[in-house]
User: Fold these one by one.
Assistant:
Number 1:
Amino acid sequence: MIKQKQKQKMLRQSMAPYEKPNEKSSIVQLINTIVPFFALWFLAYQSLAISYVLTLAIGVVAAGFLVRIFIIFHDCCHNSFFKNRRYNKILGTITGVLTLFPYNQWAHSHSIHHATSGNLDKRGIGDLWILTVDEYLEAPRSRRIAYRLYRNPFVMFVIGPIYVFLITNRFNRKGAKRAERINTYITNVAIALIVTVGCLTLGWQSFLMVQGPIFLISGSLGVWLFYVQHQFEDSYFEADEEWEYVQAAVEGSSFYKLPKVLQWLTGNIGYHHVHHLSPRVPNYHLEAAHNNTEPLQNVPTITLRTSLESLRFHLWDEDQKKFVGFNHLKTFSREERQKRVAVYSRANVK
């Protein structure tokens, strides 16, 4: 155990050379991301006079750049895009307006996600809703129906982004401090101004015909990335007393091996195991950290094709230490179900 702890400590320390932001790289990334996004948005608007099919095609590419903008926002939330925390907050607030995320609020919930990812006893903040097999079997019918609806792909990747980005993100969490509340108000006002100006100058129909698809596609892609980065078959989940940060990072966060173009558009976030091992590594250093760190070469790896398998993973099986689908429940006899529920209930009473 001591030897394992030492290895984990050394692995975390090995990230130190990659944790320093490069101001030049950050500025270049800002230019090659923000400028093309607005240029594509303008082209999509101009294309309305030609063909809406062309508008949608341009919108798909623009959505990819909006995902890349979110990765910059994400780095700012970790204070890893610039050395100066104030610069990170300013840029994070601006990119948060573009991506519909309040900077302070999301930085808070996302930091909790990093501190508790893979911890069965600390789920619920900054995570997707995950139930274990026993929790699902023990749950009342209404909760099981709600969970199945939540896990439906249409709800997860279409309705989900609309609900979270447009509604949930507009309100402060309970207990939010003054600075966080003000930041949310500023973000909401800025979004309202942009939408108002866009609708008044371009016409509300034209504005929505361009922005609507870009928002929905980028939102769905963002939720998909978050989903596959932790929901693969042999992921990592442990009770609090057994949970290990480094192990959760390298075993519970996937290496999503994407084609180079998609890797670029998604800001290297496919190297999610590196990101969870050290959130201070800027996105443009993640690939180098992975390639130059031997222990990270043998982490769970998924591709575009194999990532689609994650759609059938709905429940965490604590006995088998892997994700399973709802169909897995059919393998249990009625007696087995009752036994598992009884064991689970007794354990929770204690």
Number 2:
Amino acid sequence: MEKKKELEDLLVSVSENDDYAFRVFYDLYYRSVFRFAYYFLRNREACGEVVSNVFVAVWKSRVALRRIENIDAYLYVVARNEANRYLKESRMRRRCLSFEEIPISLIDRNSPPHSEDAPDSRLIETEVEELVRRLINDLPERCRTVFLLNRQEGLSSREIAEALSLSESTVRVQIKIAVDRIVAGIRTHYPDLKLVSLLLFLFTARF
């Protein structure tokens, strides 16, 4: 309760043009906003630009901060919008790669692995984690956002519904769709892999 009051006071100070309070707010939320943006962009430099834009947007709208009940969800929605804007602009200015510029690992599916040794459990775990990230990134935008807010940031269905203007039942459906697709994707690539750890990750977060 005390921390909640401190956060509310901080937001009020920011809304009243307190530069120092905004710096405290920036330091408090920078890492979580960066992490969330990274799920969309997968590029640290791009994330740095997007996160800067997020906090610029927050500063421009600072007067409204005192009326926001869930600042975490608010920041993640702003980050999502800024990331989508960045991706849209990047697609417009992106030049096409020539065949010679495409990494051979992306076009030669029959190329041998870097090591002749059988992968150990740690390598498999790393590969599965990367696969999960790709599967998350491939989810439809709303489904991905709902899933990340729930699993990565720990927001409840009610909190997500309020932040995204959705019904709680819609949020639950989107989470289930995400879980089903991720599990199906992993079973496709690793049909013999035990999914105990994955299922613990997917089902222990709050609904």
